[in-house]
Input
Amino acid sequence: MADYKDIKGGTVQNFAGDPPAPINGQVWYDSTAVAFQYRSSNPAGSWSTTTSMNTARNDVKGAGTTSSAALAFGGQDSGGVTAKTELWNGSTWTETNDMTTARNGFAGSGTSTSALGYMQDDPARSGKTESWNGTSWTELADLTTARRLGTGFGADNESALAFGGENAPTDNLAVTESWNGTSWSEVGDLTTARLNMAGTGIVTAGLAVGGRILNPDSNSALAEQWNGSSWAEVGDVNTARYSPFGSKFNYSDSIVSGGSIGTAVKALTEDWNGTSWTEVADLNTARQAGGSAGTQTAGLAFGGAAPSRTAVAEEWNVPTETNETITT
Output
């Protein structure tokens, strides 16, 4: 039988404590602890609860490239549809200037200093678009197709993609529009019209995930990939659901969390590796229609309906490595 030296090309080293820079899978003997130990990693990551937003709300939208700098805006709170905006600095939320129009059932994208909010549900379906410059919101040119419950993604307030939604109670939309900083123009449609999707990416590459298909009403597991000009179906998520939310950037390595299956609100999180989806650690608070920011390795989820509206925020932690004792 092969021993450790045969497999690894060396003997188990002795240390009074831990090695100076252990690598994943390394084994050593700790003479201080009088135990064999090894370096273990958790490649999937996990969620941890952090400081809640100031205002509990569902249908909130988010922007931000990391878990330490994010923007939460719009949605519906205890007083109805809201224009409230909050900034996250990695430890606290601070209320800042409101949107020009209170809205829910809309889409948002960008960063904490350069964001967009577009479309609207109440009081009527709309194509209204407004831009955040780090201090205040300004209304800009409308979408060419008024709608609600669509999705979007984009790197900043100069570029974005808006897709899906509905503009009548049983009318799914596949319409996709691109924003160039001044105006919207129609580009290639989704392969399957639907609403209440998660979106992650930038205007040249992204994903549309899950959602709801009307007439007849059903949840979707579809994932479609945007290449800058057209959509193509890729691997489905493991669990069909509507109103999930996803990491905002790094579409080729993304996470999608939460959502609903009928009346059941979910905490499920799935990781996309560019080819397929894998279920990983659940949210601590199941929710749908929440806001999100960041990437697959440094994400933030906040607000939503759980099933009633919540202010709870959670951080997606970078995969961790720990030293483990070998039981003999």
In short: Residues 4-42 form one domain.
